[in-house]
Design brief:
By secondary structure, this protein is of the alpha/beta class. It is about 50% helix and about 15% strand. A five-stranded parallel β-sheet has the order 2-1-3-4-5, sandwiched between helices. Helix 1 links the parallel strand 1 and strand 2. The chain starts with a strand and ends in a 13-residue tail after the last helix.
Length: about 220
């Protein structure tokens, strides 16, 4: 068995180091290495073998990670997409999952864990190193018909919670105490069956309880 990997990262030194690490894993081959989404589009036209997994840097010039993942999902839906970043910001994770990624990997991941992650993505279609990050694919399969009833205040809070605003800022916008905001958060964690703000946001997007505007170019 051979797992074909694609890389999209604007940092050449990191990309080459990652390629060397992948070469040390049994059964892995790098079939395309691009500097950004625009470069990837050109290289995808001439490669002989499609990657099974494409690792996409979140922050890149010309065409960022979200835009690259969206383009891949539309043009090469069979390729599994995984975000690759140093950024653990909730909004970055949400945006990359929304764009079609099935995993969010960190650049400082230990090689053994990285190899495990790639194998799980290839065989299972997803990988979550943190139990707080919900399995997006599993949720789609298992909770499609579940209905969640929210109050108007909960809907307002949920929309704000899916932004980059802090809970303190949300309390100020809603003109409520931080304790009341904590109550809304705990209530929604229970209703959506999640354990983190990221999980709450991903589940809200999946159930179309909120609609997020697409990130601007370069975000």
């Amino acid at each position: 068995m051979n797992i074909n990997i694609g890389l999209v990262d604007d940092h050449q030194l990191f990309s080459k180091s990652l390629e060397m690490m992948l070469a040390s894993f049994k059964g892995f081959s790098v079939v395309v290495d691009a500097r950004n989404g625009v470069d990837l589009q050109e290289k995808m036209k001439s490669i002989d073998v499609l990657p099974d997994i494409l690792l996409i840097d979140v922050n890149m010039p010309m065409m960022n990670g979200v835009q690259t993942a969206t383009w891949m999902r539309e043009n090469y839906p069979a390729v599994k997409l995984a975000a690759l970043s140093m950024n653990d910001n909730d909004q970055s994770i949400i945006n990359m999952f929304k764009a079609g990624c099935c995993a969010y990997l960190f650049k400082d991941t230990h090689p053994n864990d990285f190899e495990l992650a790639l194998n799980q993505i290839y065989h299972k279609g997803h990988y979550n190193s943190d139990h707080h990050l919900i399995n997006y694919s599993k949720l789609v399969a298992n909770r499609e018909n579940e209905e969640v009833h929210l109050t108007e205040k909960e809907k307002e809070f949920l929309t704000l919670a899916c932004s980059d605003k802090t809970y303190r800022q949300i309390a100020s916008i809603m003109k409520l105490s931080e304790r009341t905001i904590d109550g809304y958060r705990e209530s929604l964690f229970k209703k959506l069956n999640v354990q983190s703000r990221t999980g709450m946001a991903l589940e809200a997007i999946r159930k179309e309880l909120v609609k997020l505007s697409e990130p601007r170019n370069g975000a």
